[in-house]
Amino acid sequence: MTRAITGGVDTHAGVHVAAALDPIGGLLGAGEFPVTPAGYALLLGWLGGFGTVCLAGIEGTGSYGAGLARHVTAAGVRVAGVDRSGRQDRRRQGKSGPLDAVSAAGPRIPAGPAARRRAGTARPGRSAR
User: Among 8, 70, 91, 106, which residue's CB has the most CB atoms within a 10 Å radius?
Assistant: First the structure.
């Protein structure tokens, strides 16, 4: 039996930084992957090397992370869109792709219907911004 893995991804225009966490939140690894379909496949395969990928927290599912979110969803992995960390947090901790990826896989993952809406869909009756 393989362990359940949560992935977190800090997205950028040219490279995505991913982190793999074990079931209790321990960091298993971090890596950088190109923002291409081949890079998405590499990222998902890399995460899968640690165990069964059950959830991927992805920053920017409506922008830089949209292609990755579609790829991961098509592979049958649940995607949670996460907001990037607040400006004050980034100022205190410094900007770091690996730290942001770990954070995306952690407690900032939303739960419930809002999490499912993040993959590029607006709320019914509301206009998209």
Answer: 8
